[in-house]
Amino acid sequence: MFTNSVTVWLLIGLLLSLLELAVPGTYLIWFGFAAFAMSILVLVVPLEITAQLFWFALFSAVFAVFGLYAYRYIFKKTQTPKEYQNLNDSARQHVGKTVTVAEDSEDNQTKVKIGDSFWLAYCEKPFKKGDTAKVIDVKDSLILIIE
Q1: What pTM does this model have?
Q2: pLDDT tens digits, residue range 101-111?
């Protein structure tokens, strides 16, 4: 039915490109590109099937490596900058800050004042109202752990 190698490679490329839509991950498109490249090569230079398979394997490897570097580049460009990583986690934004204790600690808990709001804080040692403490961690985005 398909005696023309160019048509076969075009159909393989199309099939692999369409499979990319159904299969999770993003790797089949590069093999599809390799098949499209094979159709161009076979159009220009008639090759035996073993030579075609060799060149397809070589093109696949080249396109897969290209895809790897392309995805790494895209991933680095889309990473959130460090200063914005805690943008939507208001408690984590206070890690490292010095805060004022708003009330005496009881059962390893107290409240601290940050700006014009009060936060529940967990503490290992007892604190008195007015003491200063440093926020060292956050638990469940609610409790500030101070020392």
Answers
A1: 0.55
A2: 999 988 888 88
